[in-house]
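Example 5.3 — L,D-transpeptidase
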Amino acid sequence: MSRLRAACALAVTCAVAFPAAAQAVELPAHPQPGAKSAWTARVLEPVDALERPGEGAALQTFGRHAPYWGGPNVLLVLDAKTVDGVDYLKVLLKQMPAGSSGWIEADRVKLARTTRRVVVDLSSRTVTIREAGKALLRARAVIGAPSTPTPVGQFAIDAPVNQPADSNLGRRILAIAAYSRALARYQGGIPQTAFHAYEKLGSPLGTAASHGCIRVAQHTLDRLLKLAPRGTPVLIRR
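Solution (predicted structure tokens):
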């Protein structure tokens, strides 16, 4: 697992301007992530994710910039519902525990449809990038060790994160909105899962040896960085 910490100098800090006014949103007819498409929501103005549509405790507050890493804050949509004339989206939260979700007001975000999907198969120890169900790339990977397994579930790309020149993880890593279920902290920070390079870490591709992250060849990581933008669904399955 890479050293992902809010205070580290690796955070992406680019500022992106978004319109502040709420916009009318037409809810997608089929909002759930599927094999060929999914919906993402880019946050336009701060919004609370609640336990239920329009009610319950605030589980997380989303701003326009991604937590920890900066840049656009793009969420994966899991469902949609209209309650008392107000449209809501169920989105994947960017916090522990892994796979938690909450409901946000739909007029605080900009919806977009994506046909990209990343599938991590732990049994075959492979990573596949798909476009509308068709495989664009399939590559071997190092997955979590038995004591620190890679979390299983429906997740999404969080953000690319630059690394120091001497990093063992590669020039950049690709953080996933997924978190270890075996570790409460990692190297003083949140135990966030990421794709990163394997070459300098010893364990060969096809093994189970990481702290939960998915290690791939640098050329595979480069393709992931290019083909899987923020919000892209990441399905990790056994």
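Remark. The chain is about 5% helix and 45% strand.
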